[in-house]
Amino acid sequence: MLKRLFSKTDNNNVIEASADAVLPFLRTAHQTVELRAFMTPRLHTLIYCFAYGALEVEALERGMNETQQLAALLHILNTLSQLEPQDVSALLNKCMSSMQEEEGHGFVVAGSDAYRAWREADTGAAGQLADKLHRVNL
Predict the structure, then answer these.
(1) If 0-12 CB within 10 Å is exposed, 13-18 middle and 19+ buried, where does residue 129 land?
(2) Phi and psi at residue 77, in whole multiples of 5°?
(3) What is the pLDDT of residues 36-79, one digit of tens each?
(4) Contact criterion met (CB below 8 Å) for 57 and 109
(5) Helices in the chain by DSSP H: which ranges?
């Protein structure tokens, strides 16, 4: 049992499974976001804070720790972004910092709420990311 608990394969499986569960929601949410948001560093960071919030739902259900959740976010960044590896790492660091601040934390909470609603077939849930981004003061 302990061997299974600490198995690298099981750890990778839960990380990939949680990321894969959230990806369809995030792809749908990204479709509603204007391209300029992905080109504006602050908004780009907030988009992935929102993604982290969706991952929190999966993490709680799967008993993941924060390190596993961040690894799942890294998997999502690598899957959804067209950034170079060093830029992905920088974005992950920005997200981690931003989540400690009020604005970033608000996007985390919004991502959790929207993902829960989306899983319950709320068709407007994916649009919540774009709505929240429109309310950000640049």
Answers:
(1) buried
(2) -60, -45
(3) 898 899 999 999 999 999 999 999 999 999 999 999 999 999 99
(4) no
(5) 2-5, 8-31, 35-39, 41-62, 66-80, 85-98, 102-119, 128-134
Instruction: Annotate 44-56 with b (16+ C-beta within 10 A) or e (fewer).
Output: bbbbbbbbbbbbb
* CA gap 98, 106 in Å, rounded: 10
pTM: 0.88
Closest CA to 78 of 15, 123, 129, 128: 15
- Tell me the two tokens of residue 105: 């934390």
